[in-house]
Fold:
Amino acid sequence: MTDDEAEVESGRVLFAGDCTFLLSVARLAQLPAPDLPEVAFIGRSNVGKSSLINALTGRKALAKTSNTPGRTQQLNFFDLGGQLMLVDLPGYGFAKAPKGTVDAWTRLIRDYLRGRPNLIRVNLLIDSRHGIKESDEDFMNMLDKSAVVYQVVLTKTDKLKRGELERLIDATEAKLRPHVAAYPKLFATSSEKGDGLAELRAELATVARTASPGL
Ligand code: GDP
Structure:
């Protein structure tokens, strides 16, 4: 078995294990203890975040479709086999969200990103049909300031033709270069077709395994 194959296998095993919903929190005082390495998922509303978390874990309805604007914004925690915490963060980019909602989102997410010691990777989801938009750039600047490593995960790649996908990957990599906290490798996924999921599971298993001991 090559190293790559071994990583894919450890990702498969990790994500085939139990995945249980732990809790939803609307305030950081309610966060669970930072006992496990943690990876978070975020993106514009409707990017395909719930579908991706469900597809990665092989569950049909583990993560629910996104909150509507104005509803309480919550962070949802899932325990993956007692080895990795998956966090479903509230999405951004609602065109018509009231300012108070946006400000509350910004405070909550900024404080979470800056203050969570066991957060080792953020998955920044980008819809393949749209590429990186201004609200994604804004969020990437917030991530750069928080010094949290993030990787771009393209979603819904089944909607593009092969040539279109290759151009999107090149253009997205070019946009990532100036961002200091961006991981250089990106992941092209389709929750519907299953493309790219094994590679993403492998990366997250590697991240979990190499997380600093003693968390
Ligand atoms: P969320 O709001 O980010 O949690 O997004 P959802 O997971 O609810 O997905 C938003 C919409 O995109 C839904 O209509 C999904 O069926 C669709 N969608 C999600 N992932 C894919 C995918 O991989 N391929 C296609 N074609 N559609 C997808």
User: Anything to note?
Assistant: The chain has six helices and seven strands. Residues 99-115 form the longest helix (17 residues). The chain has a mean pLDDT of 92.
